Amino acid sequence: SQKIEQNSEALNIQEGKTATLTCNYTNYSPAYLQWYRQDPGRGPVFLLLIRENEKEKRKERLKVTFDTTLKQSLFHITASQPADSATYLCALEGGTSYGKLTFGQGTILTVHP
Amino acid sequence: GAVVSQHPSWVICKSGTSVKIECRSLDFQATTMFWYRQFPKQSLMLMATSNEGSKATYEQGVEKDKFLINHASLTLSTLTVTSAHPEDSSFYICSARDLIAERYNEQFFGPGTRLTVL
């Protein structure tokens, strides 16, 4: 069955450092991979989308890589700030689930001042 | 742009009653809206895909007679939880896709509705 795993449930880092979150998937051929931010009690907020034929995408302090051979995406936040503390979700779309998103379980990022 | 609203933001009801949740795209048109459910410390689980003017498509294991979805216009979809029970207590979130081609693959999420069934 299709499976999406985000490397850790929680990640704690110091302000100013780079946070790196991992999303691995199996039995899936996604056309798109997306990253979302979710704050407690709120809906997810779209951050970045990367297509299967793209290796890397950047947006301000955010960078996403997509390796379809390793079936892995890395999400980086550089110069992290306490305001970056939130749950980050990866989501895939494609294959037999085209048109629908399947979410990972999320990684709770805490940036300490 | 691309704002999705939900109403109500929270609701408490008695077991056996029905609850309606509205999802609106405020500044764009959405032919497709999605309904998700999220239990505490778990990820979002897709319940159904709602297409304007047609019947919703439900995911496996989701009872269509219990979770009634209506997508009457390009900016409004409603989810009605019928005969709610305590196990239906959850965080319900809708999302919508913009018709504009260049951002079609992005989904814009509402703020969610917290349902508590006593």
DSSP strand tally of chain A = 11
Structural class of chain B: mainly beta
**Helix-strand pattern of chain B, N to C?**
EEEEEEEEEEE
Tell me the distance between the termini of chain B.
37 Å
Give the largest interface. Answer: A-B, 20 and 22 residues
Residue share in helices of chain A? Answer: under 10%
Q: Sheet with the most strands of chain B?
A: 7 strands, mixed
Please state the overall shape of chain B, judged from the principal axes of the Cα atoms. globular
Low-confidence stretches of chain B: none
What Rg of chain B do the Cα atoms give?
A: 14 Å
> Oligomerization state of this entry?
heterodimer
The residue ranges of chain A in which pLDDT falls below 50 over 5 or more consecutive positions are none
Order of helices and strands of chain A: EEEEEEEEEEE
- What general outline of chain A do the C-alpha atoms trace? globular
Q: Structural class from helices and strands of chain A?
A: mainly beta
Strand content of the residues of chain B, in percent? over 45%
Total count of helical runs of at least 4 residues of chain A: 0
Largest sheet of chain A: 6 strands, mixed
Strand content of chain A: over 45%
Number of helices of chain B: 0
End-to-end span of chain A in angstroms? Answer: 41 Å
